[in-house]
Amino acid sequence: MYSADLTKTSIPPAIAGKVMLSDAELDKIALFLINNQQRYRENIIIPRMLGPVQIKTIEEKRIERVMESCTFKSIMSCVLGYGLGAAFGLFTSSVNPNVASVEKQQSAREILREMKATTLSYAKNFAVLGCIFSAVECTIESYRGKTDWKNSAYAGGVTGGLIGLRAGVKGGIVGAAGFAAFSMAIDYYMHRP
User: Fold this and answer.
1) Neighbours of 159 (CB within 10 A)
2) CA distances from 98 to 50, 94, 111, 173 (A)
3) In terms of Cα–Cα distance, which of 129, 124, 141 is closest to 70?
4) Distances (CA, A) of 176 to 102, 120, 184
């Protein structure tokens, strides 16, 4: 290259005055012309919702990835199941007809102990049920790669079968069929148009 040819182009004056370019300068020019790392893709389509379009930050993507993991879903189902079970157990123990009979009067302490035992029993059962169902459903959904009604049916069948096995094989089969039907009914009700 000659310096006379370089002065007519839009090359910076620091480079234009030289007769030959060094390897580092050629690399910079090649990177600029061929491999621009700062160029954004122009064919990204972001669906518009209510409000302005915003691209998620790396931190938002990380938090979303954690919250969509099977482990997080199972733990949250366990915690929320425990709370729901405790509320349900407290309600059922408060309307229990076996509170007191005429011959034997129960003290307030005995009644509260029974209410506590019933509440904790329901809370533990709901926590285990929620954790197992959520873990199985998330695992099936991850394996299949689809989100549809079959996931809840399969997860209900596995969960009902596992819980029903405590009563034997027949109880496991009945539990699997019943819980799968219940899961499908709930899924249909929640996703109907």
Assistant:
1) 25
2) 54, 10, 10, 33
3) 141
4) 43, 25, 12
Instruction: Please tell me the distance from the alpha carbon of residue 181 to that of residue 163, in angstroms, as a whole number.
Output: 15
The string of DSSP letters for 96-165 reads: -TTS--SSSPPPHHHHHHHHHHHHHHHHHHHHHHHHHHHHHHHHHHHHHT--SHHHHHHHHHHHHHHHHG
> What is the token pair recorded at 20?
């030959």
CA distance 57 to 97: 56
Question: Helix (H) and strand (E) counts for the chain?
Answer: 8, 0
Q: Give mean pLDDT in consecutive 10-residue pieces for the chain, a chain of 193 residues.
A: 50 62 82 66 68 81 92 95 94 74 70 89 94 94 88 93 91 93 90 75
Evaluate if pTM is beyond 0.70.
Answer: no
**Angle subtended at Cα 124 by Cα 122 and Cα 129, rounded to the nearest 5 degrees:** 95
Q: Is the dihedral angle over the CA atoms 59, 65, 68, 69 positive or is it negative?
A: negative
Give SS3 for 95. Answer: coil
Q: Which residues, 6+ apart, have CB-to-CB distance to 164 below 8 Å?
A: 171, 172, 173, 174, 175, 176, 179
Going from the C-alpha of 178 to that of each of 21, 24, 44, 50, the distances in angstroms are: 79, 72, 46, 41
Residue that has been written with the tokens 């938090």 in this structure: 63
